[in-house]
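HUMAN: Please help interpret these tokens:
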Amino acid sequence: MEHYFTNNQNLKSEIRTIDFENKGIVFTFFSDLGVFAKNKIDYGSKVLVQEIIKNTKNKTSILDVGCGYGFIGIVLSKILNSKVTMIDINKRAVHLCLKNIEKNKVNGEAFVSDIYDNVHEKYDLVVTNPPIRAGKKVVLNILKEAKDYLNKNGELWFVIRKDQGVKSVIKEISDTYMTEVIRKDKGFYIVRAKTADN
């Protein structure tokens, strides 16, 4: 089984496009084999984006961690009129992201990074639909280390399903953040986290 957080040079390419509409804006995404949710927009990602748009003002910079082909970051960037940085360990995902930034005309960049290894700035929002199959350790690293990349008053937003252990994840990051479950939908929990000094 090929995971979307690995790089397989031998994986063939079958580019496809996925359309999405929000607030009257139509987005088109290039997708391919070997990336997360390759045939349709992931429901959890969709709900995460809806809630961030509904609950967020004046956030001008976004970091999308484990971005896949860029759905979350690109939609948020366009609708919130923010600059987005998107990172993924998967080179194919980053390549698609760059194509999708251009296609959807957003102010963004994308590059390969193993979690935050190549990230050197701070952001108003860190967003992630974390790679659950990469293991809990990786997921917790993404969430806990996000605090080092948040501006003052910055927020971490993430989505995890109830059956993927979201409650224990919230508990494990509670020494780092004040967390709030913003929405529960079809088993998906949308969580906003802020550091104590925010």
